Automatic annotation (TrEMBL):
Domain IclR-ED positions: 70-239
Entry protein name: DNA-binding IclR family transcriptional regulator
Protein source organism: Falsarthrobacter nasiphocae
GO terms for MF: DNA binding; DNA-binding transcription factor activity
Domain of life assignment: Bacteria
Domain HTH iclR-type span(s) in chain numbering: 10-69
Length: 248
């Protein structure tokens, strides 16, 4: 990150923003916050506690820092969640191209949550309603949401997972993931990463359906379309919001 360009000139706001930006990637320990932000440990700890007081930050069951519910409320007050808004058209196009149900998942603590969905209208389908919470231990979307994490989060996420470090290395190399019966017997899926303006992976775009239709190599059939949908959403998120002035 370019420190000069990202500075507002108000130090405490810039430091608080750095903490919030670091939490975009998911649950984070105090040590990880210090490393990511480059701020002194006492400063990070003091800011994190102040942000918890205002519900902008919370702690998960393991004591790690996560983004707080107040941010969801503020996003709602602003009229839209940019990820969901950007995903709508892309998911409909992906469903049309592949003929399969399409979803966007975002990580929330130890879960991945479906935040947008376009269901296959007829025939056998894998139905995942918006709001569904699924495990981070199986499925191609879980692979994508974990593959680009830092080393300590990666090791933590692999505990009890149905995929291996070698699988995640393949995901990073290819830029997409596939799974066969990891989340549910008989279900296959393909996923690709959505990146926020900072470049971090913030969500996963997926298609899912029965193995009999997607075959045992679903990525061969649909990876290109899923990667294209993820890139479309990523590009939309990187555009400046309407009404704001873009820096030269």
């Amino acid at each position: 990150m370019d420190t000069e360009r990202s500075s507002s000139g108000v130090g405490v706001i810039d430091k608080a923003a750095a903490v919030l930006n670091a939490l975009e990637a998911g649950p984070t320990s105090l040590a990880q916050l210090v490393t990511t932000t480059g701020l002194a440990r006492p400063t990070v700890h003091r800011l994190a506690l102040a942000l918890i007081h205002h519900r902008l930050v919370a702690r998960d069951m393991h004591g790690r820092f996560v983004l707080g519910n107040r941010l969801v409320e503020l996003a709602s007050g602003a009229g839209e969640d940019r990820l969901i808004a950007a995903a709508s058209a892309a998911l409909l196009s992906l469903r049309t191209t592949t003929g399969e149900s399409a979803q966007v998942f975002r990580r929330q603590g130890d879960w991945r949550v479906c935040v947008a969905s376009a269901e296959r209208p007829i025939g056998l389908r894998d139905t995942i309603p918006v709001g569904t919470k699924l495990s981070m231990k199986g499925g191609s979307a879980a692979q994508v949401l974990l593959a680009w994490e830092d080393h300590s989060r990666l090791l933590e996420g692999l505990e009890g997972a149905r995929f291996t470090p070698a699988v995640l290395a393949g995901v990073r190399r290819r830029g997409w993931a596939q799974s066969l019966g990891e989340r549910e017997p008989g279900v296959a899926s393909v996923s690709a990463p959505v990146r926020g303006p900072s470049g971090r992976v913030i969500a996963a775009v997926s298609i899912s359906g029965p193995i009999d239709r997607l075959t045992r190599q679903p990525g061969r059939l649909h990876a290109e379309a899923v990667v294209h949908a993820a890139a479309t959403i990523t590009a939309a998120l990187r555009k400046p919001s309407d009404g704001g002035d873009e820096e030269d």
